[in-house]
Specification:
By secondary structure, the chain is of the alpha/beta class. It has a domain at 116-181 and 257-343: D-Amino Acid Oxidase, subunit A, domain 2 (D-Amino Acid Oxidase, Chain A, domain 2, 2-Layer Sandwich). Helices cover 29% and strands 25% of the residues. The chain contains 11 helices and 18 strands. The strands form 3 sheets. Strands 1, 2, 8, 9, 10, 11, 17 and 18 form an 8-stranded mixed beta sheet that branches. Strands 5-6-4-13-14-15-12-16 form an 8-stranded mixed beta sheet. The mean pLDDT is 93.
């Protein structure tokens, strides 16, 4: 009887276009002013708003999104989560974020579908294996899980992977972070949005920021397509368009924007229970809960704000996939897309103050932004609320490009994800 009622309820709500369903978050009009205005309604912006309210009691906050929530990079990535980074500063920040991931569904009371299925990084030569050993040892010294796999152990871990020694790119070993995995990108955005809204944060979609108002070196508000909104503090979290927003305030960022492409296959039965990455053949792949293979590789080499990408990346991605998994050679692919990533010279993010007083920036995550979502929001919220960088965020200040203390993570994974 209960099941029949549930089916009837679903059909009824489908026919009336879900008009009687309670909204997950409000859609208010902008108020004249806020304590904090966050530009960008993706994962990082929404997480920042949530932690501002939860950890610091700052609820007079507006998140301004020019489109729909999670419609930028949050909805255009490949959802990999990990913390196996080389340098101490990166390792500590990403491990902090991973620990937040592990309890995020409970914290938000919303299932973000975080699946710790393990992440494997392949080595195809002795040189790659030596570099991998260095990374594994460095990761272990920071108290983060990482281990080696021989080809035989790798075959046991992922039976469909082609590990024969006579292949063009033989696999000589791999590293494994068992706590790594994937999460559902839109569920992350919706979970943070609902939780932030419940604490009083205004989430305003279809509200594009067209200018920043700066008086005597201090930001006082933002110009939007829905009018001027005053603010005591303004926080930028717009990923690939960070340099565009900062240019409105009169300064440049040391970042460049590129297209990062991905694609998914037709659904198939569950055959890949882990995430596999390879820097040499240049691809990474996982399987979604719907059965689709999710593929990514490196960024397009040209600068662009397009979300289209180029055919050569897709062709190379598919060649790499079939090199590692010949069983996928006849698989059909459904769709391809691109996101805009902003990359710093050292491939590490910028989190903190800007030359304009009370204007903060969180950008430059390159291909690693999604996995840092909760940790980034937490440390960014602390920095905004207190005016002092969170200890985990301090090494990633904009000033590092003046003093030369860079955090070079270009080889963080060998392939972007």
């Amino acid at each position: 009887m209960k099941q029949s009622y549930s089916i009837f309820s679903l059909v009824r709500n489908a026919l009336n276009y879900h008009q009687d369903w309670q909204e997950a978050w409000r859609s208010p009009d902008p108020k004249p002013a806020y304590d904090v205005v966050i530009i960008g309604g993706g994962g990082h912006g929404l997480a920042t708003a949530y932690y501002l309210a939860k950890e610091h009691g700052i609820t007079n906050v507006a998140v301004l999104e020019k489109g729909w929530l999670g419609g930028g990079n949050t909805g255009r990535n490949t959802t990999v989560v990990r913390s196996n980074y080389l340098w101490d500063e990166s390792a500590h920040l990403y491990e902090f974020s991973l620990k937040l991931w592990e309890s995020l569904s409970q914290d938000l009371n919303y299932n973000v579908m975080f699946s710790q299925r393990g992440l494997v990084s392949l080595a195809h030569s002795q040189h790659e294996m030596q570099a991998l050993r260095r990374r594994v040892y460095a990761i272990q010294l920071n108290g983060i899980d990482s281990e080696f796999l021989t080809p035989a152990q790798l075959k046991e871990w992922c039976p469909i992977l082609h590990v024969a020694p006579d292949t063009r790119y033989p696999i000589v070993g791999a590293s494994l972070q068992r706590r790594g995995g994937v999460a559902r990108h839109d569920a992350v955005a919706w979970g943070f949005a609902r939780a932030a809204d419940a604490r009083g944060v205004d989430i305003i979609q279809n509200c594009e920021v067209t200018g920043l108002k700066v008086e005597n070196g201090r930001v006082t508000g933002v110009e939007t397509t829905r009018g001027f909104v005053g603010a005591r503090k303004v926080a930028i979290a717009v990923a690939g368009h960070s340099s565009v927003i900062c240019a409105m305030a009169g300064f440049r960022l040391p970042i460049s924007s590129h297209v990062l492409q991905a694609l998914v296959s037709e659904p198939i039965k569950p055959v890949l229970h882990t995430v596999i990455t390879s820097g040499l053949v240049h691809v990474y792949v996982s399987q979604s809960d719907k059965g689709e293979l999710v593929l990514g590789a490196g960024i397009d080499t040209y600068n662009s704000y397009s979300q289209m990408g180029s055919p050569p990346i897709v062709e190379n991605m598919l060649n790499a996939l079939t090199e590692l998994f010949p069983i996928f050679s006849r698989l059909r692919f459904l769709r391809q897309w691109g996101g805009i990533v902003d990359t710093c010279p050292d491939a590490s993010p910028i989190i903190g103050k800007t030359p304009v007083e009370n204007l903060f920036v969180n950008c430059g995550w390159g291909t690693g932004g999604f996995k840092a979502t909760p940790g980034s929001g937490f440390v960014y919220a602390h920095t905004i609320a207190t005016g002092t960088p969170h200890p985990l965020a301090a090494p990633f200040a904009l000033e590092r490009f003046h003093i030369g203390y860079l955090i070079d993570e270009h080889g963080a994974s060998g392939v972007a994800h």
